[in-house]
Amino acid sequence: MSEEDFTRLVEAEQRVEPRDWMPDGYRRTLIRQIAQHAHSEIIGMQPEANWISRAPSLRRKAILLAKVQDEAGHGLYLYAATETLGADREDLTTKLVEGRQKYSSIFNYPTLTFADVGVVGWLVDGAAICNQVPLCRTSYGPYARAMIRICKEESFHQRQGYELLMTMMRGTQAQRRMVQDAVNRWWWPSLMMFGPSDTESSNTEQSMAWRIKRHTNDELRQKFVDMSVPQAEALGVTFPDPELRWNAERGHHDFGEIDWDEFWSVVGGNGPCNEQRVAHRRKAHEDGQWVRDAAAAYASKRAEVVA
Ligand code: 3HC
After folding, report:
1. What is the mean pLDDT of residues 229-235?
2. pTM, whole model, 2 decimals?
3. Which of 10, 12, 73, 18 is nearest to 41 (CA)?
4. Whose CA is nearest to atom 10 of ligand 1?
5. By its UniProt entry, which NCBIfam families does this protein fall under (predicted)?
6. ipTM above 0.85, yes or no
7. Which CATH architecture has domain 3-306?
8. What Å distances lie between residue 118 and 39, 102, 148, 180, CA to CA?
9. What is the pLDDT of residues 118-170, one digit of tens each?
10. 36 lines ligand 1 (CB under 6 A)
11. CB within 8 A of 55, min separation 6: which ones?
12. Which of 32, 33, 41, 151 to mutate for ligand 1's pocket (most ligand atoms within 8 Å of CB)?
């Protein structure tokens, strides 16, 4: 198959499968994006796991346990998708802990109160849903299929977060203040999850041509803002953006300028929790070496017995 044939197949909305010919660049871009997506799911377990042992009730603890466990499953699903492209999971983990591959900037912010657990569910998983539902139509088959199940679980994540906040907003003045404080800290980093503006995005044009991405960063960010404003009104909170207002002409909400210096500084490893997150992941990987060695020893013994 030639690159033109491949482009025609993708433009005809056909799925590319692991055994199909594909341009090296397409394979590389997919491994990069899916691996970083998987890293984000695994690192993303840390901020909320911080509250499992301190949840205010057994119900909240059970919900949070289920959510964090889902994130682990999403990561494993996505690493499995990278393996269909010839990537090696151990190599990807090494790249992550050595800072040679990225994970989503959002997970480098601290979860300071239990209201953060609700806001992460509502805004971070809400942003993830905006960004990931279109990926159910991405051109690479294994990635698209993985996203269908992941998106179903993300909607549980988003709903449980919003319900947690609804409960707190019906609580004491102190609880309402905790929720608004968390919203103030997480709103702008949630907008940054969608990546740089389209004019600054080095990958969007090619990813859109290959139907890996179905919408641009700015299109999805705008969708998320438009979706979140009525939810904030129903909750009784405000977003920390004096320029946020409905623009009837555009049919969308206008909003203020994102602090791109902060974004690139966090992406570059200088966010509030980058060091802690990567060190924790590195230690978990090192502590698990004996499990991997035991599994490999068992597999080779079984192979001897079976042979
Ligand atoms: N954090 C860290 N790096 C980011 C970033 C972010 N929020 N946004 C962009 N970047 C990086 C890109 O990786 C790229 O660097 P690279 O070329 O070295 O990989 C560079 O900034 C330029 O950005 P582009 O827009 O050109 O990059 P992409 O085309 O890859 O778009 C993306 C970025 C929109 C995040 C896209 O990769 C994507 O849609 N990925 C799949 C979804 C995903 O990974 N979501 C992350 C959150 S997962 C999550 O939320 C889990 C949930 O359970 C909470």
Report:
1. 98
2. 0.96
3. 73
4. 195
5. PA_CoA_Oxy1
6. yes
7. Up-down Bundle (1.20)
8. 22, 25, 24, 11
9. 999 999 999 999 999 999 999 999 999 999 999 999 999 999 999 999 999 99
10. yes
11. 61, 64, 114, 117
12. 33
